[in-house]
Every structure is written in structure tokens, then in C-alpha cells.
């Protein structure tokens, strides 16, 4: 599949990540890094992806994914990719079959090819990262309709991912220690009020305005306080979030969706010898049929 065939829009959908990656520890990426990462994740084939699979992105595509105008888009794209290349991720307890392995450190991408005369780049995902974005089965989440370029806070994407991981429950508690660790804050924001005003509050404002989730109970929203605190004595030790999908139909449809790999695994004879595009068409027909047969439940 030629990844340059379809011009991607500002709204990108169908990004899938393993739970371990959702909770991985790394400093929050800046907006341009997030745009690059999601643009790349949105075009991968989870069945064939490996460390030698090229993922292409051009300056013109990058421009289409941002809301700012002017500037040198290839320079901005190159800067974002270079920063992403320098980032490391820490994944705790990565192998359930090897309990003595405490954590793994990896990068997002392991190499980049620059075509400066053509204003484009080719990235290759790091081998240790690939199991968390390809061939996903069971413990993963799919998230949709992210308008990353509209986010004002660099922490929005991370908080969104942590909430969507618990979409079935609609509630999640994060201790302050977990937030510092997962968001890569280190010893920053030791004062709770600073963490709320600089990290949590701006991210929730973005989520409520620019994503398919709402955060905060009705009572909390009336007070403009979109989450609660848990204390140990007089000390705040955790934040508690209540959230849900703005469109409940989308939530139910999303909960019933399958990845290509899952569909192939469930239908080996039906998909045997079929091309990727043929399997995608079959999967789409399967999902449409499910909705038709369960229209009373879904709608």
C-alpha cells in the first residue's frame, strides 16, 4: 500500500496502542511531535509492520495536519521528527513471561531518511516499540477523531490516552506519583495547585472541547471543577476522573469493532489468500452487518 496515496486530513482516526504503551513513561511530546506520531501511526498496516517498514510523511501533508500558517513546513517537520527521534520511552514489566525483566527503554523511531530536495521524510519505528502498535490482541485501545493541532496543552494526548484505556468503566483514579511518572514530570509540579493549573486543567479543557470524550460529572461541571481529589489526611494523593463518550452510539460501535488481525484470526478460511484491501472490505461489511442486525440495541 502506497502511504502517499491518500492525503491525510486534520482529523485522524483509528489509532491503536497496547495498554503498556498507553502507560509508558516519557515526557509529553510537543504538538508537532504528536502530529508526526499520530500521522505515522494512522498509516501503518498492523499485519505487515516491522522494523524495515518505511513510514512516509511529506511537508505538504504535515502542513495539512497543522492549524498554523506560514513558516517553512519542511523545516518544522524535520525539527519535530528529529525531536521525536531523540525521545526515549520506558515500558514497565514488558514481558509477562519474563517477570524478572523490570522495564525496557526504547525509542519511537530507530532511523530517518531525509529527502530534502523533495520535502519529505521516511521513518522506521523502533523494533522494541512495534509489538505495542502492531498485531495487537486483547489489551489495547483504539481512539478516534483527535484534532491534535487544536490542543493547547502538550499533556492532553497523554491524559486522553490514560482515560480511554478505562473507557469500559468511565472512571479512573491517578495518583500524583503516577502522573509525575507517566507524564515524565520528574520532580516538577511538587505543589498540587501547580500540577492542577499547568498540567491537568488545560488538558481537560482540551479534551472537553476537541475530542469525543467529556470529563466531569454534571455536579462537577456546574462548579467548573471537572475532577475530584482523594486525600490522605490533609494531603492530596490522587485525582479521580469521571468521563464518557459524547456520542454513546460511537462508544458502542467502537466496543464492537475488530482489528484486521483479529478478523483474520477469527476467519482464517474466509480470509485465506485475500489481499489486505480485500480483507479490509470484508471487515467493513462485517461491521456494517453487525450494526444493521443490532440497530435496535445501538440506536
Structural class category: alpha+beta
The CATH C-level name of the largest domain is: Mainly Alpha
Percent in strands:
15-25%
Helix content range:
25-40%
N-to-C order of helices and strands: EHHEHHEEEEEHEHHEHEEHHHHH
Q: Roughly what is the average pLDDT, rounded to an integer?
A: 81
Radius of gyration: 20 Å
Protein architecture, described:
There is one protein chain. 39% of the residues lie in helices and 20% in strands. It has 299 residues and is α+β, with helices and mostly antiparallel strands. It folds into 3 domains: 8-150, Arc Repressor Mutant, subunit A (Orthogonal Bundle), CATH 1.10.10.10; 153-252, Arc Repressor Mutant, subunit A; 256-298. The strands form 4 sheets. Strands 8, 9, 10 and 11 form a 4-stranded antiparallel beta sheet that branches. A 3-stranded antiparallel beta sheet has the order 2-6-5. The radius of gyration is 20 Å and the shape is globular. It has helices at 19-22, 31-41, 59-64, 73-86, 156-164, 176-182, 192-210, 218-222, 248-255, 260-266, 268-271, 276-293, 295-298, and strands at residues 15-18, 55-58, 88-92, 103-107, 109-115, 120-125, 140-143, 171-175, 213-215, 228-232, 235-245. It is built from 13 helices and 11 strands.
Outline of this structure?
The protein is of the alpha+beta class. It is built from 13 helices and 11 strands.
